[in-house]
Specification:
The structure holds two protein chains of two kinds. Helices cover 74% and strands 0% of the residues of chain A. Chain A is mainly alpha-helical. Chain A has two domains: 49 residues, no CATH class; 200 residues, MetI-like fold (Orthogonal Bundle), CATH 1.10.3720. In chain A, helix 10 runs antiparallel to helix 12 and helix 11 runs antiparallel to helix 12. The two termini of chain A are 21 Å apart. The N terminus of chain A is likely disordered. By secondary structure, chain B is mainly alpha-helical. Chain B has a domain of 152 residues: Orthogonal Bundle (MetI-like fold), CATH 1.10.3720.10. In chain B, helix 7 runs antiparallel to helix 8 and helix 8 runs antiparallel to helix 10. Chain B is flat and about 80 Å long. The model of chain B has no long low-confidence stretch (mean pLDDT 83). Classes of the chains: A mainly alpha, B mainly alpha. The interface between A and B is large, with 75 and 73 residues.
Chain lengths: 285, 269
Amino acid sequence: MSNASQNVCNEVIVAGGDRKPFNIVAFLRNEYFLSCVSLLFFFSFWHWAASSHVLGHTSALATPMEVLSRLAELFTSTLAGLTMWGHIWASLKRVLIGFTLAALLGVPLGLVMALNPYVNAIVKPIIDIFKPMPPLAWISVAILWFGVQETPKIFIIVIGSFIPALLNSYNSVLLIEPELYDVVRVLGGKRWDEIRLVCIPASLPAISAGLQISMSSAWGCVLAAELVSSRSGLGYIIIQGMKVSDPAMVLGGMVVIAVIAWLISQTLEWADRKLCPWRRDIKSF
Amino acid sequence: MAFETVKVGKPLLLRILPVLSIVMFFTVWEVSVAPPDVHDWRIPSTLLTSPSDAFKLGIDKLTNVNPDGATLLTHAYVSMQEAFLGYILALAIGLPLGLMMGWFSMVRGLARPIFELVRPIPPIAWIPLTIFWFGIGLGGKVFIIWISGIVPCVINAFLGVRMTNPVHIQMARTFGASDWKIFTSVCVPSALPMVFGALQIALAYCWVTLVGAELLASDQGLGFLITMGRNLGRTDIVILGMVSVGLAGAVIGVIIDRVEAKLLAGIRR
């Protein structure tokens, strides 16, 4: 397993190694080959489990092919007046509105809290009260306050994504190396120069990481809100699939949810690289 | 002594403000909620409950099983049981898996694609499928909590091993250590800070997901208490449930912090 020792370290191997003669053991141990084997095994196990009804009754699991065909059907026909695209957009719209609101509130507040001890002394205790409360616990109260329309869902998303956005921008400023401030001060900078030249650029990577956490939290919240009460959205699709005992619909919904979540995280990752190319931590997962 | 220790205390204002802020918060909350059947400028009691009423209800619920069928402590106990079962299972499976994925390319090749398939699905989205499989009993909730907890465990343990200082590995290799020996005596210890980080993150995830799972399908537990309060139109029960969930979450967080500090004593971050 000499391969692993080269992979495990942080050093960059630009080019190296020489062609080895074909070796069946090495081929069988190749990571990509093993990945294919494992995926093949996963899907065939899924198919077997679904077609032989190991889980007891017929409506517990659908085979991968059934899921795909059901998914194609969902994209072309309508459910509750919307095609799959409509449901995707319904969820996405809620997430985008809630996430934008939370980011616009949370990030500046976090920065101000970190920069001004008086604001911090006033706001921090209240944040600490609300921090341990899971956002999903707000669903009931949101429905009591705002009814069952769009507002409670957006409210939940704001609650869910506000805290990570705020805490990350707050912590990022506190973790800035004090030497950086000294440099600005030695060069004759004012307080405002410190904020503009040091705080903002140095905290941007952590803010961006916080926003990525916010986004995944927002995505979980919108699903939960839609599961509890909704007439549209991806959460509605899977809960509807559950109500009519249609596992293919539930799994199809989950596949779409996973794909959208993956696309969103890739987009944020890309934006992160564009916005702050100077971040240096290891991100290899 | 060549130097003098100067104690710089916080200004008085900065020490008073947090207390003041919390007091203000609860006072405003208390004052702005109207008692039942009073209609004036205040928020009606159908929308919000004052902290004193919530507290009184909390005391009452310690012994009273009405109207939701269990005392507050029973609900809390059920929730804790689910959360900890799922959490322990997530740790027991996620941490070894993540550590092995970091070091052995064979485990990585086998486990990673499936993990990558499951990872982007929010745990909440598993709820309908879980209800098909397990019904609304303990098993389903533990499964959902397990799913939510295992993701940070695997990722952190994996990254912890991958971030091992290569010099240490090379040194162990120079002294003729086997692959397994390097894994157990170099990679795992150096991954420990990341692993302890995972303990905390996973617990937070588990607690959040628990509430989601109970909101949808359960017959006991703090999340159920919240749902029941809404169904009965009892805002005070909803608020009590939220406060209990928050309190329990905070207590768990403090405990984990303490444990982590104990375990991490002596390990360089």
